[in-house]
Known about the structure:
The complex is a heterodimer.
Chain A: E1 4-5, E2 11-14, E3 19-25, E4 30-38, E5 45-51, E6 54-58, E7 61-66, E8 71-76, E9 85-93, E10 101-102, E11 106-111
Parallel strand pairs in A: 2-11
Antiparallel strand pairs in A: 1-3, 3-8, 4-5, 4-9, 6-7, 7-8, 9-10, 9-11
Chain B: E1 4-6, E2 10-13, E3 19-25, E4 31-38, E5 42-49, E6 56-57, E7 64-70, E8 73-78, E9 87-94, E10 103-104, E11 108-112
Parallel strand pairs in B: 2-11
Antiparallel strand pairs in B: 1-3, 3-8, 4-5, 4-9, 5-6, 7-8, 9-10, 9-11
Amino acid sequence: xxxxxxxxxxxSVPEGAIVSLNCxxxxxxxxxxxxxxxxxxKGPELLMYTYSSGNKEDGRFTAQVDKSSKYISLFIRDSQxxxxxxxxxxxxxxxxxxxxxxxxGTSLIVHP
Amino acid sequence: xxxxxQSSRYLVKRTGEKVFLECVQDMDHENMFxxxxxxxxxxxxxxxxxxxxxxxxxxxxxxxxxxREKKERFSLILESASTNQTSMYLCASSLGDGTYGYxxxxxxxxxxx
Lengths: 112, 113
């Protein structure tokens, strides 16, 4: 079992839809959870960062962590064609470990 | 904003050549990393460094070496390029314990022919 599982997609949705992107993980010691967005032929950029459980909202984006289920989600409201990208989840341990474990990414296509 | 700059966007090299990929960050980050990214395999860590002149092997160090002579610069070296090293190479940096995430460069698409 991989430490972090992420469906590669592609996930294709119409403009304006609510998008749900998800990752599951096996290591219950993960404490820091991140979502990166990667446009084609570019490096990933940090989109959302969450510590421990709960929700975090930033504009149209909401990150959710459910540690009891070892499941994290990224919701995108009112999706736009400019949201078309690959979304990678990442998570790391507490206590000074600085090497995150990445999911393989989900490709999202938002069509007009 | 932190900026991580990779010297080349696209490179084409011949098998057996020695290849240098350069990465510079401008925000005094302690940690620097080299990944390669391949379709279906995701990001794989090659080497990382948490201080000047320090280096640690990642998951796939074979065929690569690194150099960190200055805090802001981290170089990846392919000693003798091979076709299976054709890939997207990504440099990243982070603060201290890295818990605030990475800043990535734009990547270098290397093709070895």
